[in-house]
Amino acid sequence: MMRNGASKAIDNNPSDDICPVCKSNRYLNPSLQFLINPECYHKMCSTCVDRIFTSGPASCPVPYCGKTLRKKGFHKAFFGDLKVEREVDIRKRVGAVFNRRQDEFETLLDWNNYLEEVEGLIFDLVEGTKEEKLKAEERLKAYRESNMGDIEENRRAGLEQIEMEKQREKAEKEAVRQRRLAALREEEEEKLDVARSKRDVLERLANTDEDANKITQQAQKIILKKSSARRTLAESVESNGRARDSGLTIRGLKKKEAPIAEKPYDPFGGVDLTPSRYVLQEDYDNEWLSNAKSDTRHMAGGYSLQEYYARTLFEAFSGLGVFIEDEVAGRSLPAAPASIGTAAAAEASAAKVNIEYKMELDDVF
């Protein structure tokens, strides 16, 4: 078993540069070029390909292969591993048939199921057994025959999209080249302006009696004004060009919207829990807590005196915002007519509630 695995590894080794047909070696012939055919992926040198397949189709010369090959099917391997090369070719062949786009499906689940089906078909063609490969080829052929119109339409749409991408890249490269040329022209104009200003300054110094500092300052101001005017003009032309290009590139795309910044999570749903009737301080002087503050055992396990202060004050002030008179007055009257006795009983009960509520408040303080 180990000997067979070793021989298989040697056969699939991409560094093995020996032609299986003529036994030519790249070590002795550095210009030797190997070619493969997608029908069987057996590599052979270009000399053997020209010698065997120039006159027409012929069987593969590799022993125990026997597949009919044509010269136009040979090409140079892009990957060093022929398994990867074979999988890439299969993906290209399947992708040319299963070329639907996501916007053709109603839901994302349908699109994912379609992609899963395509990947399963590719896996059967790459790693499946002989029966699985035959079934996969039949499925591929049946789908091609039944969806020929959609396949051709999607192929044209893909080619149009690729052409539009090429045009966009070409326009971007041209815009970059124009900006580079504009920068070079601006640099040359600035050099010419500096040379003219120097010449004018020298002429004014030689022909007039004005102050030399004033003359140089005026020349510098003129140069700055010209350079700023050129820069403003170039920026306006560039912005107009971008506006025109943005309207003529790709039509039908969705408008890009800036993502909304997510707010931090609020577990209370926006309810403000800040106390309105009192202000919580950092510390309070209490004889009951003096020992707990100085003893580290009370602070173990995440115990916090701030939580104790907050809970105690909340319980003390929790009933101050409740008014029994308002709640009783807001209650709906009974449907039956109230008699004098029931009205008196209601007043007595309301008075009793007020007394109890007053007692509770007195007990708190």
TrEMBL record:
InterPro entries: MAT1/Tfb3, MAT1_centre, Znf_RING, Znf_RING/FYVE/PHD, Znf_RING_CS. GO terms for molecular function: cyclin-dependent protein serine/threonine kinase activator activity; zinc ion binding. It is found in: Nucleus. Residues 126-205 form a coiled coil. Residues 19-62 form the RING-type domain. Keywords: Coiled coil, Metal-binding, Nucleus, Zinc, Zinc-finger. It comes from the Eukaryota. Its main location: nucleus. It holds the Pfam family MAT1. GO terms for biological process: nucleotide-excision repair; regulation of transcription by RNA polymerase II. One of its GO terms (cellular component) is transcription factor TFIIK complex. This is RNA polymerase II transcription factor B subunit 3. It comes from Hyaloscypha hepaticicola.
